[in-house]
Write a structure and sequence with these properties.
This protein is α+β, with helices and mostly antiparallel strands and 466 residues long. It has two domains: 36 residues, no CATH class; 353 residues, no CATH class. The chain has 15 helices and nine strands. The strands form two sheets. The chain has a seven-stranded antiparallel beta sheet, sandwiched between helices.
């Protein structure tokens, strides 16, 4: 609960604020008779004496306030949240990748996959007299995930950022308590969208003929850096505000939450790397499933090649599903990170065990699909007459699998780790119940002892009356 005087966060059962020392409900208290009064009262309505300090002195003190450390941290957190949401809102429209190959650079942004990519596919198919349905579907399936990621990143970040800015401004001006904060969710959505967009296009080739790499463009890098700095400072303010609760009542939970947050960030970083590595005589390359799908589409350009590859449909389906599994891992990692950080601004602990199970399951299926799709891709290359032996590596999906299991273990530990405050409350309740039961036993014993005396007195009175 938040103090009505300084807006600092306190335990739910607090009567007086642990930061400013005033009542958390905002009421005044008469210093003479200790009666509770409305906040605007100047004289006590029970004893008639003036409150100290007087109304005039209180107004003068309010004109030049001395803000407590908690109030300053609250205002700083609101300002950082507004900056974080604003950075996310601006830079989400500038997300893009930069491809460098042989000294040449090519930039690609989100908007290309809302129309330009499909127009290029139409221009590619237009001069062809005949082409197979497998070739056409492979072209479109290699573009559709980009469009979904772009639409989800722009829509989600824009909505959460606008709601977060409005929410933080209202909290800063009107001192309204916030239970669900949209500003950090806006940044995490922007970060997840940028990582997913890079994961779709991630390629790093080092061969005898070409050296190619795909990374973020300058605008995306700047947006992530500015948002991350605001996000870290914002978390620091929230930790300082809730230090009493996080470090004393939930010390073990806070330590596990910090480890879970680090693991979730590692999962996001690894997921942005190319998923599958290919080793051949010419060199080494690592590619995303969609890049392999695009390469296969070029190999299937004529109808004869499409007919020659007997497992073409299976390879296309496997690579497409693998790409969506990778995007699902990124989305679930963002949700797990959000659930892990929720206790910093919410009284209710957010465990996130369900999302941890979903992430571990998705990472497991991703590892299986990566292995199967790679083996089918090698078979397809054999049908196309490839003379070089190609070997696949699965380091990235294996690392995602391991770290997702570690994250799941942290969530399980947090789920079954007792809360110190809850344990103390339970002990207090049990102690009260024990005291009540002892009092009831004593009352019953005294009643049993006095019952014969009452019966004897009643019999004597009856005899006298007779």
């Amino acid at each position: 609960m938040n103090c009505k005087q300084c807006n600092a966060q306190n335990p739910n059962d607090a009567v007086y604020c642990m930061h400013c020392g005033k009542r958390t409900d905002g009421k005044a208290q008469c210093p003479h008779c200790n009666k509770l009064l409305p906040a605007e009262a100047e004289f006590c309505i029970y004893c008639g004496k003036a409150l100290a300090p007087s109304r005039a002195e209180r107004g003068a003190a309010q004109s030049c306030p001395k803000k407590s450390a908690a109030a300053i941290l609250q205002n700083c957190s609101h300002g950082l949240a507004i900056a974080m949401a604003a950075f996310s809102l601006v830079f989400v429209f500038l997300i893009g990748t930069l491809i460098t190959a042989g000294g040449a650079m090519q930039a690609t942004d989100l908007y290309y996959y809302f129309g330009g990519a499909y127009a290029d596919i139409g221009e590619l198919l237009a001069p062809l007299e005949s082409y197979s349905a497998t070739f056409e579907s492979s072209l479109y399936l290699s573009v559709i995930p980009y469009t979904i990621v772009a639409a989800a990143a722009i829509a989600g970040t824009a909505v959460f950022a606008v709601l977060g800015i409005v929410q933080e401004i209202l909290a800063l001006t009107k001192k309204k308590a916030i239970r669900f904060r949209f500003a950090p969710l806006a940044f995490l959505t922007f970060l997840g969208g940028a990582v997913a967009f890079l994961a779709c296009a991630a390629v790093s080739a080092h061969t005898s003929s070409v050296v190619a790499n795909v990374g973020f463009n300058t605008a995306t890098t700047a947006g992530i850096a500015l948002g991350a700095v605001s996000f870290v400072l914002y978390l620091g303010c929230r930790v300082a505000i809730n230090a009493e609760t996080l470090l004393k009542e939930r010390a073990a939970h806070s330590a596990l939450a910090a480890v879970a947050a680090v693991l979730a960030v590692i999962v996001l970083g690894v997921a942005s790397a190319p998923l599958l590595s290919l080793a051949s005589e010419n060199g080494m390359a690592v590619s995303s499933p969609l890049d392999l799908l695009s390469t296969l589409s070029l190999l299937l350009q004529d109808a004869q090649s499409s007919a020659a590859v007997l497992n073409a449909d299976a390879v296309i389906a496997l690579l497409f599903v693998t790409a969506f599994l990778l995007l699902s891992v990124i989305a679930l990692a963002v949700v797990c990170l959000w659930k892990t950080l929720c206790p910093l601004w919410s009284d209710k602990p957010q465990n996130g065990l369900v999302w941890g199970i979903a992430l571990a399951s998705c990472a497991t299926v991703l590892l299986v699909f990566s292995i199967v799709s790679a083996s089918e891709y090698k078979i397809a290359l054999g049908y196309l007459g490839a003379t070089q032996e190609v070997g696949f590596g699965f380091a990235v999906p294996a690392v995602l699998f391991v770290f997702s299991l570690l994250l799941l273990g942290i969530h399980i530990a947090r789920r079954y780790l007792p809360n110190r405050k809850a344990a103390a409350q339970n002990c207090g309740c049990q102690g009260e119940e024990g005291e009540n039961s002892e009092a009831q036993s004593a009352a019953a014993e005294s009643e049993r002892q006095t019952r014969p005396e009452n019966e004897n007195a009643a019999s004597e009175n009856g005899a006298e009356s007779a």
